[in-house]
Write a structure and sequence with these properties.
Layout lengths: L1 E6 L5 H14 L5 E6 L7 H6 L2 E7 L7 H13 L10 E8 L6 H14 L3 E2 L27 E4 L12 H23 L1
Parallel strand pairs: 1-2, 1-3, 3-4, 4-5, 4-6
């Protein structure tokens, strides 16, 4: 089973989240994660067509996905959309910003809408929001309380080897496992 992670990362923080998603995928026996940084240039559209699922990731800049991920989305129109080559593939998404909220929901909505236009099946988080009670903490999974996809936060004065925090990365790994297990169940149906 092949799960591709298509992402952009301006400062390395979102790449770290992509790696955490890949780690979660690798926890599922027989699953392979393929990291694809859109900034690298050439895109292997055939490999994406062979993927069982595609997870999208982007930093949130000014409440939007990055220009490089948006360009990938636009390029997919000719490469995949016109023939619905990704129809019925599992899709999911994650985003990172410097702010706790940072309008990250808008980035996830953009990814989910893109997936819907390709006929993909979106998988969100099935986790209750962490850090939402007097007994909660920033160490809870889903500490930023998102269901549509993974939201992570990186302090703007910390490098990617420090931020985002471990609970955000654990939430990303959880999404990787969930996507892989969902794709496996869909194949078995």
């Amino acid at each position: 089973m092949l799960i591709s992670i298509v992402y952009d990362s301006g400062y390395g923080h979102t790449a770290r989240v992509a790696e955490a998603v890949a780690a979660g995928i690798h926890e599922v026996q027989g699953a392979e994660a393929r990291l694809i940084a859109v900034a690298d240039g050439a895109m292997d559209w055939e490999a994406l067509e062979r993927s069982d699922a595609i997870v999208f990731g982007s930093p949130t800049y000014n409440g939007l996905i990055s220009a490089k991920l948006k360009q990938f989305f636009e390029n997919s129109t000719k490469a995949a959309w016109s023939e619905l080559k990704w129809r019925n593939k599992i899709a999911a998404g994650f985003t990172n910003s410097g702010a706790q909220h940072g309008d990250k929901l808008n980035s996830l909505v953009s990814m989910a809408l893109f997936a819907a236009q390709h006929g993909m099946i979106w998988v969100g988080l099935d986790l209750m929001p962490g850090n939402s009670s007097s007994t909660g903490s920033v160490y809870d999974l889903n500490r930023l309380g998102s269901w549509l996809g993974v939201m992570t936060q990186s302090n703007t004065d910390q490098a990617a080897d420090i931020a985002p925090i471990k609970s955000d990365l654990a939430t990303a790994a959880y999404l990787g496992r969930r996507v892989t297990e969902t794709a496996r169940r869909l194949q078995a149906a």
